Amino acid sequence: MTTYSFRLFIAGQTVRSQEAVANLRLLCDSRLRNRYDLQIVDAVECPELAEEGRVLATPMVIRLSPPPQRRVVGDLSDHHRAAVALGLPGANEHPQEVRP
């Protein structure tokens, strides 16, 4: 089975940042179960990682693996659209509402 790896860039502990973290975890838990790694990076505290990742806006999630890399900017509140953009399993089959 494929393991997915994500790096989520946020800017401080804002409501939008917290929503992005919660939405990404919800997406990963519902679609990938225990087959993912998630690193959360505060771009304010680690600007070198944000620069290395060419992060121009936050929140931004980068799917590091499997290749190719995919990037999504926003709080990921549209779960179906985020799943499609991140290339998650089953995302193109039909809209799946993810509930906490």
Keywords:
alpha+beta, single chain, 24% strand, 4-stranded mixed beta sheet, Glutaredoxin
Distance between the termini: 25 Å
Question: Which CATH-level-2 architecture?
Answer: 3-Layer(aba) Sandwich
Strand order of the largest sheet: 2-1-3-4
Number of helices: 3
Strand content: 15-25%
CATH class category name: Alpha Beta
| Arithmetic mean pLDDT | 91
Largest sheet: 4 strands, mixed
The percent of residues in helical segments reads 25-40%
Order of helices and strands: EHEHEEH
Number of domains: 1
* Rounded radius of gyration (Å): 13 Å
Q: Find the structural class using helix and strand composition.
A: alpha+beta
CATH homologous superfamily classification: Glutaredoxin
Using DSSP, what is the number of strands? 4
Low-confidence stretches: none
Query: Any idea of the CATH topology?
Result: Glutaredoxin
User: Which word captures the global form?
Assistant: globular
Report on the architecture of this protein.
The protein contains three helices and four strands, in the order E-H-E-H-E-E-H. The chain is of the alpha+beta class and 100 residues long. The protein has a single domain, classed as Glutaredoxin (3-Layer(aba) Sandwich). Strands 2-1-3-4 form a four-stranded mixed beta sheet. A hairpin with a 4-residue loop joins strand 3 and strand 4. The longest helix has 17 residues. The mean pLDDT is 91.
What is the element layout, followed by pairings?
Layout: E1 4-10, H1 15-31, E2 36-42, H2 47-52, E3 60-65, E4 70-73, H3 79-86
Parallel strand pairs: 1-2
Antiparallel strand pairs: 1-3, 3-4
